[in-house]
Amino acid sequence: MILILGAVCCFILLNPKYQDLKYRTFRTLTFVGTGLSWIALLVHGVRLFGIEKMMKQFGMPCYFLERLLLAIGAAFYGTRIPESK
Questions:
Q1: For the whole model, what pTM was predicted?
Q2: 85 is a domain residue
Q3: pLDDT tens digits, residue range 32-54?
Q4: CB count, 10 Å around CB of 4?
Q5: Best label site of 14, 19, 26, 60, fewest CB within 10 Å?
C-alpha cells in the first residue's frame, strides 16, 4: 500500500503538469494522504491486540503526535503562512 501511495505522490510531485501553484493544495493533500496511511495499520493492530495493548506496548500516542506534527507542517506548506506575511 505505501509503495503505491509513495509512487503516486512522487509522480505528482515530479510531473511538470502539477508544478503550477493551482495544484499546491492537491500536492499537499497527496502528501498528507500518504502520511495518514498508517491508520490502516493501527486499526489492524487494535483489532488484533486491543486498544490497551496498542497504547502501552506499541506507543500509539507517539504515532498520533507524529501525524499531528506532519499535518501542521503540511498546513503551513499548503497555506504558505510564513511566506505570505
A1: 0.66
A2: no
A3: 888 888 888 889 999 999 999 99
A4: 10
A5: 14
